[in-house]
Design brief:
By secondary structure, this protein is an alpha/beta fold. 36% of the residues lie in helices and 19% in strands. It is globular, with a radius of gyration of 21 Å. The structure holds S-adenosyl-L-homocysteine (SAH). The site of S-adenosyl-L-homocysteine has 18 residues, from strand 8 and strand 10.
Length: 346
């Protein structure tokens, strides 16, 4: 691997030895990249010129900010970044009372095919490198001049479909010597790649696993998410139980409400029945209408009723506050709009 920003400390030490340098240089370079967030070797004040020369063979991955939209309502910002090969990805900054949270993409595009999602419409282009996941956070922290305290991997892509890079990303993000975000302040969201959930559980990380459930049974879930043809709700919930047993971390279930599809009282009761006994929390969100899709969002009242019906059966739910409603369009739409624009210019 030559992507220096995706290397962990050990690998960076090995690289130093390989190119005839002292291993302690690794710690310095790592700190410049992941703590001070510099974008060039020139900025690394304590690195000798001769070493900087050698490092020219190891270009630093830096994302280019193409566009940023700021919400007048709550300060939410949507960033569009260009990768070095011209691909584009989206990230979102959300400002909460408890701190700044960034939602990052894990892939350019996605191959999971969820019916209500804009990010999957053009399919998967490629996996993001660990450095490309990290740099979404680094660039945003640098651009606002404030610390990012929370990270959610809920943007474009299925993080568990880019598993090795995701794990590497998590370690660099949360370990000493870098930006050092607490694992407890990290959430990774998956549509439910069951074997990967088991693997992840065995890593015993302290992050939160969010699982996009969106339906109380297999039949309904298959209408919304092709992955439901591969793994049943039972298999998925077994994996979630295993995750909780291994990590002690409460599972978050995401449930996007689609009018007339998954938002009835019966749906809430069936869901509560399935989740009973599992240490979990349900995040409710009315589905974001996507231009290319015909799904209609549930009314405010239907969402509130759903929450009440869950709670009557002993399952906690939160209605997710909508952020940046004025710069909206569902996730993935900024990127899509840009891709269409560049296509039509060709
Ligand atoms: N692939 C991962 C993470 C990215 S999607 C996953 O599936 O969890 C982040 C969340 O947004 C998921 O819960 C996804 O189902 C949901 N989502 C996607 N499009 C949506 C839309 N139009 N309205 C509401 N939620 C949506």
């Amino acid at each position: 691997m030559t992507d220096i920003k995706s290397m962990n400390m050990e690998e960076l030490k090995e690289l130093m030895v390989q190119i005839g340098e002292k291993p302690f240089r690794a710690k310095q370079i790592y700190g410049w990249l992941h703590e001070h967030l510099v974008t060039s070797y020139d900025e690394m004040a304590n690195i000798p010129k001769s070493l900087k020369e050698k490092l020219k063979d190891y270009p630093i991955t830096v994302l280019e900010e193409l566009d940023v939209q700021t919400s007048k309502v709550d300060g939410t910002r949507k960033y569009l970044f260009r990768l070095s090969d011209g691909n584009m990805i989206e990230s979102v900054l959300m400002r909460y009372k408890y701190g700044n949270s960034v939602c990052i993409s894990s892939q350019a595009g996605c191959r999971m095919g969820c019916r209500f999602c804009a990010s999957t419409i053009g399919g998967l282009t490629r996996n993001l490198l660990p450095s490309e996941m990290l740099d979404q956070i680094y660039r945003i922290q640098t651009s606002i001049g404030e610390r990012i305290s929370n990270v959610v991997v809920m943007g474009t892509g299925e993080p568990l479909d880019n598993y090795d890079n995701l794990l590497r990303f998590i370690h660099i993000l949360t370990e000493d010597g870098g930006i050092h975000i607490s694992q407890r302040n990290l959430t990774v969201s998956t549509c439910g790649l069951v074997p990967r959930i088991y693997e992840l559980a065995d890593e015993k990380l302290q992050m939160t696993l969010a699982v996009s459930l969106h339906a109380p049974n297999d039949e309904k879930r298959r209408e919304l998410m092709p992955i439901a043809n591969k793994y049943s709700v039972d298999e998925l919930l077994d994996a979630c139980r295993y995750y909780f047993d291994k990590t002690g971390r409460r599972i978050t279930f995401e449930y996007s409400l689609v009018a007339g599809v998954n938002d009835s009282k019966e749906n809430a009761q069936e869901l509560a029945g399935r989740l009973k006994g599992l240490n979990c929390h349900v995040n409710l969100i009315p589905v974001n209408p996507v231009r290319e899709r015909s799904f209609v969002r549930s009314t405010r009242q239907a969402v509130e009723n759903f929450k009440i019906n869950l709670e009557k059966c002993g399952i906690n739910g939160t209605i997710r506050r909508e952020m940046g409603s004025d710069i909206d369009g569902a996730c993935g739409q900024l990127r899509k709009r840009y891709m269409e624009k560049t296509e039509s210019e060709k």
